[in-house]
Amino acid sequence: MDLVVLLSLIGAGLALVSFVAGVITLRRRRLFGTAFSFVLGLLFLTLALLFLTISVSTRGYRALTHEETAATIETRPTGVQQFQATVTFVDGRSQTYVVAGDQIYIDAHILKWKPIANVLGLHTAYELDRIGGRYIDIEQEREGKRSLYSLKQPKVLDMFSLRQSYSMLAPLLDTEYGSATFIAVDEQATFEIRVSTTGLLIRRED
Asked: What is the pTM of this model?
């Protein structure tokens, strides 16, 4: 079981015990003991909800401890400054996109946790975010046909968005940032998208 989920369950259990103890002391008319038990219960409940939020919002992100392959992309030109890009993810899924431009572009979200979060089992994680085309000429980039697609998987909560909205996560997250890479597409080829703790890179397979 995920350590963060386990901590969430432990926090919920301790909160329940504290609330039950509060009810018992209330029946015995021990106001101080009742107040203490309810405050303690709220504290444990808050921690349980925090760990649960972290667990749910990081689903879809892949733990990263070294440089690894995030996906492979097979490109096939279909016209002038236009090509098909078939992305195969590490879980076996694949999707084909029609892309306009001279280059293939891909970016990702990177989440880097602080050492205290590493103890809880949270490590640097990433999620591929977008894929699209990129023109070499800046004027074409401004006025040419645009193509951009989302690579994200639907989720109830997203840690990248939560961190931007809630400062309470700051003590756990060291940094969160976007990383992008691109390469020219002039013939049918296969590219490997790799990710490390410093960001994305792309390599052409021989």
From this structure: 0.62
